[in-house]
Amino acid sequence: MKAVQFHEVGGPEVLRYGDVEQQAPAAGQVRLRVAASAFNAADNGMRAGFLPIPVELPHVPGYDVSGTVDALGDGVGGVVDGGPGNGLAGGLAVGDAVVGFLPMERDGGAAEYVVVPAEAVVAAPHSIPLADAAALPSVSLTAWQALFDDGGLQAGQRVLIVGAGGVVGKYAVQLAVRAGVHVIATASPRSIDAVRAAGADQVIDHTRTDLLDALDGQVDVLLNLAPIEPEQFAAYVDAVRDGGVVVSTTAFMATPDDASRGVRAATVFVQPNRERLAQLVALVDAGELTVEVTRRIPLEELTALHAEASEGRISGKVVVLP
Ligand SMILES: NC(=O)c1ccc[n+]([C@@H]2O[C@H](COP(=O)([O-])OP(=O)(O)OC[C@H]3O[C@@H](n4cnc5c(N)ncnc54)[C@H](OP(=O)(O)O)[C@@H]3O)[C@@H](O)[C@H]2O)c1
């Protein structure tokens, strides 16, 4: 089968597109015929050796994946519980359309086929193309975890989302609004309309307005998704009420707190959560969560995409089609 693989960490040139032996699923695993994998900044970081993730070499990138179950390992069909929440009544069967956030250290979906733990996948949304569904798993889970698990947000509270115009940000705005949270979001001119469309109650153009001046009172949670300067991030803590929370996905810098006012800091490290992913899929199918794909590229172009990401930010979500 065709795959993109790297045998050593390094620049984008370590990626090789070529033939790789197709694996059979072991007990507890299934093989997927990949519809698409999604590109994440962390794919670039893992390939470059920047992230503290013990990647098994050689490695196929692309931990967000969608596809069709093509072969079952021992015990999978009957063992995978079809109980409430996992989105797959009766367990997995050949031909099921699924989506998953795969273990990051193991092979991903930048290939024609990938063998995955059965518990890593749930039924794919049926209201969007299967390939586009690869854009959902880890980023929507990040947004959920940041808002509700790490931030503890509840209906009636206020959140300030910095960097709401990005991929995680638009999921976060939609999920927070849906949960009855008042959302104040920052966006630059190119993203203002999209953040408003996602449902933000107030959008502040951080390129033209001082954020702290524009706020009409404090918030319960500040969620930072943007590569802002640490000094600026520390200054934004003033926007959080006493006893509130500062949450950040930008794990490359420390998340500031203010212990004197009981404001705590939480840094997000996204975790797989099958039940939550099934809930997110259900929201997509209910029309309550929009999955945005900015570009669809063939697998052969993944090396060029990594090169582009190494030079600067990739805008929006790119899915990679084998
Ligand atoms: N820790 C984890 O588990 C985890 C998981 C997923 C993602 N992440 C990280 O979380 C961050 C957000 O992810 P993403 O996929 O949403 O990234 P993204 O699509 O690049 O979005 C980041 C947004 O930040 C905004 N921004 C850039 N510079 C800014 C500045 N100086 N001030 C204010 N806003 C600024 C941009 O908004 P405009 O469009 O308005 O200009 C951009 O859309 C990334 O660093 C990503 O690597 C971490």
The small-molecule ligands in this entry are:
NADP nicotinamide-adenine-dinucleotide phosphate
End-to-end CA span: 10 Å
* Sequence of secondary-structure elements: EEEHEHEEEHEHEHEHEHEEHEHE
Proportion of β residues? 25-35%
Describe the structure.
By secondary structure, the protein is of the alpha/beta class. It is 25% helix and 26% strand. It has helices at residues 41-48, 76-79, 137-150, 167-178, 189-197, 211-214, 230-236, 274-285, 302-311, and strands at 2-6, 15-19, 29-38, 64-72, 97-101, 113-117, 121-123, 158-162, 182-187, 202-205, 219-224, 240-248, 264-267, 295-298, 318-321. Strands 3, 4, 5, 6, 7, 14 and 15 form a seven-stranded mixed sheet that branches. A six-stranded parallel sheet has the order 10-9-8-11-12-13. Strand 9, helix 5 and strand 10 form a beta-alpha-beta unit. The longest helix is centred in the middle third of the chain and has 14 residues, at 137-150. It is globular, with a radius of gyration of 20 Å. It starts with a strand and ends with a strand. NADP nicotinamide-adenine-dinucleotide phosphate (NAP) binds at residues 41, 139, 142, 162-163, 165-169, 186-188, 190-191, 206, 225-228, 249-251, 268-270, 313.
Secondary structure topology:
Elements: E1 2-6, E2 15-19, E3 29-38, H1 41-48, E4 64-72, H2 76-79, E5 97-101, E6 113-117, E7 121-123, H3 137-150, E8 158-162, H4 167-178, E9 182-187, H5 189-197, E10 202-205, H6 211-214, E11 219-224, H7 230-236, E12 240-248, E13 264-267, H8 274-285, E14 295-298, H9 302-311, E15 318-321
Parallel strand pairs: 8-9, 8-11, 9-10, 11-12, 12-13, 14-15
Antiparallel strand pairs: 1-2, 3-4, 3-6, 3-15, 4-5, 5-7
Helix pairs in contact: 3-4
Bound molecules: NADP nicotinamide-adenine-dinucleotide phosphate.
